[in-house]
Design goal:
The structure is a homodimer of 533-residue chains.
Chain A: E1 3-8, H1 14-25, E2 29-31, H2 32-40, H3 44-51, H4 53-69, E3 75-77, H5 86-95, E4 96-102, H6 105-115, H7 126-139, H8 141-145, E5 149-152, H9 157-170, E6 173-175, E7 182-187, H10 191-199, E8 206-211, H11 212-217, H12 219-227, E9 233-238, H13 247-259, E10 267-272, H14 274-286, E11 292-297, H15 300-306, E12 311-316, E13 319-326, E14 331-335, H16 344-361, H17 363-372, H18 380-400, H19 415-424, H20 432-449, H21 457-467, H22 476-482, E15 492-493, E16 496-504, E17 507-514, H23 515-520
Parallel strand pairs in A: 1-3, 1-4, 2-3, 4-5, 7-14, 8-9, 8-10, 10-11, 11-14
Antiparallel strand pairs in A: 6-7, 12-13, 15-16, 16-17
Helix pairs in contact in A: 2-4, 3-4, 4-5, 6-7, 13-14, 15-16, 15-18, 16-17, 16-18, 16-20, 19-20, 19-22, 20-21
């Protein structure tokens, strides 16, 4: 059990609902405003007028952080402005479930007036209060959006209570990106989660993008989605495979959506792997200059990688993903049930990205995979925990660097050579994850030779990948075919490529390396023939 | 002459350079930190420690606003954090020329240490100062980017002085959008302005997008751009006209750029009208998930409209601009010299968008056009002032609403019916501005009938448009052809369209209107045959 934090404007029902949640979960309850008043021996209004808002915020911040770090699991009702502090908000997202409560301004005013308490940021006439609450709502919109879920309280609180408890039980991974925030649900067999998530967006119409394989393998899920009758729907079924991640397929989505006469409240749903998600996301980002989309990833790779981070696009004859955008989904539901119909080879390939994020960010996850080996694929509960952790790690990286200007570059580990290997194989011979597995090992060999990665890490990583059923070494022919594609890397700047290289298990640094070092260095000569230790 | 405001981190040279600028321009000089110390009788460090940062910022804000509003033209060196206040920063952008000074962190530290003064936000060891300056630089990047120009001061200050004076002399229109900020130069015959602006971006390569007409009419400008040797360049010449604003042309830009092996420091240059700008901007927004672009608009319409606001895209068989993105250019240079080779009809069409922005936002500009009539086209100095004012107005609207969620909707006035008329004419019979002129008059007729626009405004607007050489009334045939395209409007939400309607000259309100009202109402029946009063 984790702590529950309730946030929202004054009058949104945090204190009342907080006590109800605490009672239901059998947890202690703290209202930070009341606790501050108890500690200071003065009311919040008195603190505001005597010390000023900054001093009050400092007290509030200190209390909130203390409540998150003392090891006690509880329900906390924050003050209205508490989560506007970045440190507090991020700590709450990491420490428990953060739920934002909302209600129409008129309801907030009525409740606040009825409570009869002095609200230091309001005061004055009802009209002035409405105006001030609207301003606060606007100013805090980005902070309030960064949460695990939003619950409306303009209705019987018993119903709102059930919604809060459902969010706490689901405990989705939060992807906090201001007003572009969204959550990722990691579940195992619950089609209603997807339809609920989509219904919450109140779509005017749905464009469901999938591929022929998925439409067949997951036909029950697709049917239940359409049967839910959420909005007029159009299904676009693309030919499967990376070889079809091309402009004509994107154009087919545009044509279907625009032929349907969509408006800006339409929502694109992507049901499939990374190819479907990337193309559907790209189409959504460009239809009417950007509409919303929901990702329903059906492969392990797209669950842990493609569905988190907002990268969209398609392949160009000169290289992979060279045309695209950054466009965040509105919701992601990763349902492990989809893996039951996924070929084993694809499931194994998906583990390559899990190894990547573990090796670059989290030693504990890496060691967990070393201990489990291929058995992690047999134990669905274990697999769900691993998938969830990989998504959390990626979300943690992306939230600090949405547009790949810095930290996020570590996610490209294995991809400089891996993408080239995949391109060299013309997207048909190797799955993306298979190419990335080889790319990681090849880049670690380079890192070891340059003294940038610790000696032995290449061998250890190769052993883990092989234990998971992945080939660690490309053939000489594969490397030769890959070479021409190294220069097309998006991360190239002039004659250098920025290559992330692990400096230890769970740590990674980005190095600008000469393109020539990759093209003509030992990697493309002796490496493929060197035996794995 | 306008005031000059210098901003930047401590040690960036604001005080020294400010005094030099003031001496050259013969203006009084104020350093806000010194002025605050004089007023308070205490040093900034003492004020910080005794009153705290918020109280200091309040003093600083009040002083800055006073200096901008007392009617005295002067040079002001702001404190390092002064422009982080939105109100102060926007007031400075409106009141004069705001220049940001920058230098490497090490230079800032050396200068600050040499000055020997106590800096309240720094202190401690040189390493701690470097760290703190880096943090401040990051935290303030968005605010510092909102300015009329940036000048590096890590060199002899005499050279930096000349750069500041050049920015003051140019006085570009600032488009303040945080780190996506850019400026629009409005000039008359100076090709070096474009090459200087592009050179400042340090591009790794250039993709110059133009069309066959422009490449011929402005061949000297194109040649001088290529001759400048700024970076390896590739010219993509598209077939001219709205009829070619289609996916195959966008794909041609993608192919040319990727065939060139561009990296993320490549820059797309659009030399042409709105069609070239929209497609080139769209290609830039999607190449490698977004690279920079510079707009060199060559038509009056694209100068006042298409080059400001970041809308990019292309037409789809189901309607205009239905696929696109929001992507801000890095710089826009509107050179009126291009108009010398533009057909008269296109110049007149461009005035339609000037009338639109005047009618919705600025009564003075509308009345100025009524007084001048078509003579505004003969007087280049007057025309330059009109173009500059129209761009300022659009920038003012866009800066408050980048993504068209509210205020920006007023810019769609005339476009609901205008776009449909243009689509009905299959993009070939009517220029965009010509269709918008008719759209404005038709929408005003609707507004008058619904009592939402004042009686007589339709007639007055029609008279102005006709005085400028534009047809105000579509034919019956044009209206009939337009009808099927009304429903494809991007602004449609369900059965309603949000239609902006002027409530007076210079003021506008957006109304959600039934689509049926536009499709089957009097507009598409009796209106076209009603005589202009």
């Amino acid at each position: 059990m984790h702590s529950v934090f309730l946030s929202g404007l004054m009058g949104s029902g945090k204190s009342t609902l907080g006590a109800m949640v605490a009672a239901r979960l059998g947890l202690p309850f703290v209202d930070t405003d009341r606790e501050l008043e108890r500690e200071a021996g003065r009311t919040v209004a008195e603190l505001f007028s005597s010390e000023g808002e900054p001093a009050f915020r400092a007290r509030e911040r200190a209390l909130a952080l203390r409540l998150m770090r003392d090891g006690v699991v509880r329900v906390v009702a924050f003050g209205g402005g508490t989560v506007t502090n970045d440190e507090v908000r991020h700590a709450a997202l990491d420490a428990g479930t953060l739920v934002t409560l909302r209600a129409p301004t008129e309801t907030l005013v009525a409740r606040t007036a009825a409570a009869g308490s002095v609200r230091p940021l309001l005061g004055g006439s009802p009209e002035a209060m409405v105006q001030r609450l609207r301003e606060l709502s606007l100013a805090r919109a980005a902070a309030y959006a960064e949460c695990h879920g939003t619950v409306g309280t303009d209705r019987p609180l018993e119903n709102a209570l059930e919604d809060v408890l459902r969010i706490v039980a689901r405990r989705p991974v939060a992807m906090p990106l201001g007003e572009r925030s969204y959550v990722v649900d990691v579940i195992d067999g619950d089609p209603s989660r997807s339809t609920d998530a989509i219904a919450a967006l109140r779509p005017s119409s749905l464009i469901v993008v999938t591929d022929a394989n998925v439409a067949e393998a997951r036909k029950d899920d697709l049917a239940s989605l359409l049967r839910a009758g959420l909005a007029p729907s159009r299904v676009v079924t693309l030919p499967p495979g990376e070889v079809h991640k091309t402009l004509p397929q994107v154009a087919a989505i545009w044509d279907a959506a625009l032929g349907q006469g969509i408006d800006r409240n339409a929502v694109v749903i992507t049901l499939g792997g990374g190819v479907v998600g990337d193309m559907g996301g790209f189409a959504a980002s460009t239809l009417l200059r950007g509409i919303r989309f929901v990702q329903l990833p059906t492969t392990l790779l797209s669950m842990v990688d493609a569905s988190v981070g907002g990268k969209t696009g398609f392949d160009h004859p000169t290289g992979k993903n060279l045309v695209g955008t950054f466009h965040q989904p509105s919701h992601v539901v990763a349902d492990l049930a989809h893996l039951s119909t996924l070929p084993d080879r694809e499931v194994r390939a998906g583990l390559a990205e899990v190894v990547k994020i573990a090796l670059t960010c989290d030693a504990a996850l890496f060691e967990d995979l070393e201990r489990a080996g291929r058995a992690v694929l047999e134990d669905r509960t274990h697999l769900q925990a691993v998938v969830r952790r990989a998504i959390e790690l990626k979300a943690w990286v992306v939230r600090q660097d949405e547009r790949e200007a810095g930290l996020r570059e570590v996610l490209n580990f294995g991809h400089t050579i891996g993408h080239a290997v995949e391109s060299g194989a013309e997207y048909t011979q190797l799955l993306h994850g298979e190419a990335i597995a080889m790319g990681m090992v090849a880049e670690l060999a380079l890192g070891e030779r340059l003294g940038l990665s610790p000696s032995g890490l290449r061998g250890r990583t190769a052993r883990l990948l092989e234990a998971l059923g992945l080939r660690a070494e490309p053939s000489n022919a594969e490397m030769v075919a890959a070479r021409p594609f190294l220069g097309a890397d998006k991360k190239r700047r002039g004659s250098h490529v920025r290559v992330p290289l692990p400096s230890a298990v769970g740590a990674c640094t980005v190095h600008p390396l000469e393109l020539a070092l990759l093209e003509d260095g030992p990697n493309f000569g002796s490496l493929p023939s060197a035996p794995v230790p």
